[in-house]
Amino acid sequence: MKHTRFGPYGGVFAPETLMASLEELEDAWRSLWSDLGFRARLSGLLRDYAGRPTALTHAERLSEEFGFELWLKREDLLHTGAHKLNNALGQCLLAQAMGKTRILAETGAGQHGVATATACAKLGLDCVVYMGSVDAQRQRPNVLRMQLMGARVVVVEHGQRTLKDAINEAMRAWVSDPQAHYVLGSALGPHPFPSMVAAFHEVIGQEARAQILEQAGDLPDYAIACVGGGSNAIGLFRAFLEDESVRLVGVEAGGEGIDSGRHAARFAGGSPGVLHGCFTWLLQDDDGQILPTHSVSAGLDYPAVGPEHADLERRQRARYESASDEVALRAFAALSEREGILPALESSHAVGWVMEQAQELQGKRLLVNLSGRGDKDLGTIFALRQEGASDAEVLS
Amino acid sequence: MNNRLHRVTRELRASGRRGLSPYLTAGDGGLDQTLDLLHAVEASGASCCELGVPFSDPIADGPVLQAAADRALAAGTTVNRILAMVARFRDNGGSLPIALMSYWNPLGHRGWPAFCSEAATAGIDALIVPDLPVEEGGEVMEAAAAAELCPIFFAAPTSSERRIRASAAASRGFLYVVGRTGVTGAGTTFDSSALDFLKGVRALAGDLPLAVGFGIRAAEDVAAATRYADLAIVGTALVERIHRAGAQATQAAEEYLRELVAATTSVSSSPSSD
Q: ipTM of the predicted structure?
């Protein structure tokens, strides 16, 4: 295999049983990605089925209030409600071209699971989705959506019962059934997944760059996205890597604060190591055991970051910050009440960071990737608000 | 190469005798018990031992070894404590070759050169890393060679001939042959396709000893596995038995392993390759 690394990060740290599947996948991906027929089929699906291009919206009321110029790339408007469908359609189409009939996937927030179930229903493929029981509970609408589209949802009761454990179980399922295709949902894992997933999401940044030039008349000063595994962020960032004036900011989950230890901010609290097939920044203890993570958003609640982000950080081409649960919830409320957009809690972290940094960002043109919509989070939001309301009652 | 595992597996290969390679999860039941178990493995006549370092996220392991790793971690098992326990085993006169088996992260976390040197000093002979394919193995091979440790890579039923040759060329001590696709512990039968696969690996691996694992439980599995492999690996079935035996773990393990070792010697008269 070639070009498996981003600087020192990435690689193929996979069990031998999977190496043949990874080699086959790399070959298929390289040949189909440069195949005009395949690209046309994918573009057609993204346009006529998924609803691309997605809009770029000027968030006028928030811009006025905070003193910056905020533009939102509306991946929440994509079919199924998040950017995840770009990758799921791409990989399922690829799997179909490879003659695969059975698809495995993991999901955290449920958006990747829904996107994969959707692509499988559209293309006529069998679909099994692994999901931690904590996530299955907090993102219940997405479990129901997957089931309605004919996917089998396997609830994982091991470990922390979140995204990490869902990936463990999906990888075990793939080791047991290497003839299936594993649709990994973020730009992480063993090569070729980080490159391939990023390539399927490049369309986000390509559209956004053209749109902001057209609608605002210039490039943004900042391009900002939330980073769990980092697929929506890398999809945005790749289009701006050569634009030196554009600062790239990835926002990780600060959870209850970095000092609390209850967060998922890999660059602030981690160190390099190997998890789920790649060498990258991880949250781990002194003995190389993976640490529990915390975030109010299931999609950012993961201990490793995609290897391309690790390299962008090393090269100082992008910087990585964090936003706490509380900041994200404030951003959720602000976007809902002042822009009429219910954002996913994941995407709320990117908007929340912008609101927190309003001083630094005065007068700047900001492009934020609004990676998904928040319908799935209503249960979490209302539960927290009720909790907050009863706390307030107690205090008063 | 002055290394116990290298010496023992070379002797097996030269003599045509076959052996057993039991797997233990270090720290499951406490490290004192693991120390007793190492002595029991040696007393049973097994050729070597694979000592599993528990990891929080074992992607190639089935439920039994996942649970064993969880118990070991909950009991406070760390890499340093495992190495100190192995050093005690050597101080007690234990000469059983020991391969440390774990995922990249708990072993490579402190840097491979430092880790290999500490492991060799403690009395470790080999490293088996299931999420380290041969193309990522350069750094580990270099550090292992400097410390006179055997790096051990894998061959699986899905591996191409090219991959099997490369894994064999990079391995010392033995090549770890995964008998079937799947996580550790799922049942298996040594049917004709499994035997053909083993025979194929034998032809591609030069004169490197082979150890075959995954799914071996009973004496007949050992007998079938050692028709073409020099070593039969028993992991999940042993770990399960040890856990169930509670306070009688050491005795239960030794009895079970003696039975399996006897099954290897019963085919020792067959030629090593054909």
A: 0.94
Q: Which of A73, A84, A164, A376 is catalytic?
A: A84
B27: containing domain: 4-149+217-260
Which of A104, A287, A293 has the highest number of chain B CBs within 10 A, making it the mutation to test binding with B?
A: A287
CA–CA min distance A246, chain B (Å): 35
Test mutation, B165, B176, B181, chain A, max A CBs within 10 A: B181
State the SS3 of B118-141.
Answer: HHHHHCCCEEECCCCCHHHCHHHH
B79–A contact, CB cutoff 8 A: yes
Peptide bond into A53 cis (omega under 30): yes
Active site residues of B: 50, 61
Residue contact A17–B158, C-beta within 8 A = yes
Whether residues A357 and A246 share a domain: the answer is yes
Distance (Å, rounded) from C-alpha A83 to C-alpha A86? 6
Cβ of A288 and B106 within 8 Å? Answer: yes
**Beta bridge mates, A6:** A9
Q: How far is CA B30 from the centre of its chain?
A: 20
Whether B196 is in a domain gets the answer no
Look at residue B113 and give its three-state secondary structure. Answer: helix
- Does residue A372 form part of some domain? yes
Asked whether residue A218 is assigned to any structural domain, the reply reads yes
Give per-residue pLDDT as tens, B128-155. 999 999 999 999 999 999 999 999 999 9
Residue A98 forms part of a structural domain:
yes
Residue B106 lies in a domain: yes
Active site residue A387: no
Q: What is the mean pLDDT of chain B?
A: 93
Q: Note the pTM of the prediction, 2 decimals.
A: 0.95
Residue A2 in domain: no
Q: Using an 8 Å CB-CB cutoff, list chain B residues near A171.
A: 59
B121 touches chain A (CB under 8 A): no
| Segments of chain A with pLDDT less than 50 | 394-396
DSSP class per residue in A285-346: -TTSPBPP---SSGGG--SB--HHHHHHHHTTSEEEEEEEHHHHHHHHHHHHHHHS--B-HH
A185 and A93 within one domain: yes
Number of domains in chain B: 1
Helix (H, G, I), strand (E, B) or coil at A85: helix
User: Would you call A122 a catalytic residue per the annotation?
Assistant: no
Q: What is the pLDDT of residues A344-364, one digit of tens each?
A: 999 999 999 999 999 999 999
pLDDT tens digits for B17-31?
999 999 999 999 999
Cβ neighbours of A4 in B, within 8 Å? 135
C-alpha A200/C-alpha A43 separation (Å) is 10
